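idk why but the lab printer keeps eating my pages so im just putting this in chat instead. protein + nicotinamide-adenine-dinucleotide:
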Amino acid sequence: MQPLLNYIGGSFVPSNSGDTIEDINPATNQRITTLPRSSSIDVDKATQAAIGAGPAWKATPIEERIKWLENIADALEAKHEEIALLETLDTGKPISLSRRVDAARSVSNFRFFAQYAKEQQPMQFEANGAINHIHRNPVGCVGLITPWNLPLYLLTWKVAPALLMGNTIVAKPSEMTPLTANLLAETLDELKLPEGVFNLVHGLGPEVGQAIVEHPNIKAISFTGGTSTGRTVAATAAPMFKKLSLELGGKNATVLLDDARIDDIVDELVRASFTNSGQVCLCGSRVLIPAKMYDEVAEKFVKGVERLKLGDPMDESTQMGAVISAEHLSKVESYINLGIEEGGIVLTGGTSVNASVSGVHAEGAFLRPTVIGGLKHTSRTATEEIFGPVVTLHPYHDEDEAVLIANGTEYGLAGSVWTSDVERGHAFAQRMDTGIVWVNTWLNRDLRTPFGGVKQSGIGREGGIWSMSFFSEMTNVCIKQP
Ligand code: NAD
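predcted complex ->
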């Protein structure tokens, strides 16, 4: 594959220094290509291009910007298979998952915001003999920084509303998964999106990401990534009074109430735990089980986990591929070892079990899905984000204790509740300190709804009107007839 380039002011260019980084396929540990190792100089060039394009893009009527979103959706849809393939190469996730989730959602992000914008009514309030007209103006040049787990899905989730609201963009994808961001830049270039409206700068987080956050002319930062990085981003951006959206880590609870029918839901519980090798910020990594049902649920859950087919991501029947890198594999394995040190019992998977992969994949970052029982719910293994295929099981004695365990981490991103009684599930869900709770379902997304976390899972919400608000500044014009 050709070396990747930055996309600045409508041109594909190398980094100023000419330095590069290797892009590795984690399923084979082989090099795919290289990407620019950019610096603050490249970020500054991209920002200048974005600022130069700002006035014309702002002046483009919203109806035309909506049309742009629709055209981008069509163009990405035509590349559905290519997106899926690139995403699987970069992440090691199964090709079926890349098609169903990554490629599909990247298209629907653009379609959704185009349609949603058409449905908006002008905001007006009448009082005291005057009418208040609320106008939304673009923020200006915005910085979009995204992680490796859902590369194009999460980038387009930000790009679509940012363009819609008239902003120009400096984007930085994860250095581990640059391929589909490059495909997006190529697509926008083919569509002849005006030069400078969308700029892409590849590179390392502390270099390029940090330079984006520090740049005085980038007025808003939408960041998705880990909590510790989010803390650095917040510390840098706050004194500059930048608008900030932080979508961070999680340690989500999957709660079975005592009327849950395990045979009916076990496959969904496994999916909620191990989709994308547990590398979805919304995956449930702690399963809370009524003590009287613990043995039965643990046994059936483990059997369900053992049915998952692990292996070659390009095989249509594979359900779990590699984790993102050899380095991440080591981190996940160190958490399994920590779990054992903390008194946990590995019920399936674990470090000592080789993945059933061979040939070109023998060097890949594969790990069997791992379930650990017997840990205190306050242990590090059960409270820190592992972001891999590791789930802990915890018995509880009554709903108050289940709430205590569910809320007993510094995170508050997502959770799920499983019950035969939806009202009971709804009531329990409201006691969970998280941004989203699913009852009897998981990763069931309506893009109009607010998405984001509480506590150390983030600040702000994205989706529907919340994204439109983040990517705009409102002016209230209050008019009284003379
Ligand atoms: P990360 O924080 O290491 O990196 C995220 C992005 O930030 C990357 O592009 C990285 O290069 C960049 N970055 C790193 N240092 C930076 C700095 N100092 N300034 C600016 N940018 C910097 O996260 P990751 O390992 O890529 O992704 C995994 C994490 O993302 C997990 O914690 C996961 O829970 C979280 N995540 C959250 C959501 C959500 O919606 N809440 C969604 C997906 C992933």
